[in-house]
Design a protein that fits this description.
There is one protein chain. The chain is mostly beta strands. Helix content is 0%, strand content 53%. The protein has no helices and 11 strands. Strands 2, 4, 5, 6, 9, 10 and 11 form a 7-stranded mixed β-sheet that branches. A 4-stranded antiparallel β-sheet has the order 1-3-8-7, with no helix packed on it. The radius of gyration is 14 Å and the shape is globular. It starts with a strand and ends with a strand.
Length: 118
């Protein structure tokens, strides 16, 4: 079992920055991807950024150039650095760990609120 605990959310003015952290308890394997998703009120949950075990990253077009995902495998932690925040970034941000085809797994954190005021 893996438990994910997010932190770092809060209220920030437009143009500001935040760094989200997601610490995983339990084993995170080298082939596990770690990612951030978000869900705004009345909208579907969407991918923000994901980082594979080997370090390959993928971002939603809406956050490219503003957000950076990284991971510390020794600490089983994934980070999301968010710069130049916009009101449309307001959402609950969720951490997710997924496995591979041969070793499937899918864990979600409880979410952390990010609110960007204009």
């Amino acid at each position: 079992q893996v438990q994910l605990v997010e932190s770092g959310g809060g209220l920030v003015q437009a143009g500001g920055s935040l760094r989200l952290s997601c610490a995983a308890s339990g084993s995170i394997f080298s082939d596990n991807a770690m990612g951030w998703y978000r869900q705004a009120p009345g909208k579907q949950r969407e991918l923000v950024a994901v980082i594979a075990g080997g370090g390959t990253t993928n971002y939603a077009d809406s956050v490219k150039g503003r957000f950076t995902i990284s991971r510390d495998n020794a600490k089983n932690t994934v980070y999301l650095r968010m710069n130049n925040l916009k009101p449309e970034d307001t959402a609950v941000y969720y951490c997710r760990v997924t496995g591979s085809y041969y070793r499937p797994r899918d864990y979600w954190g409880q979410g952390t609120q990010v609110t960007v005021s204009s």
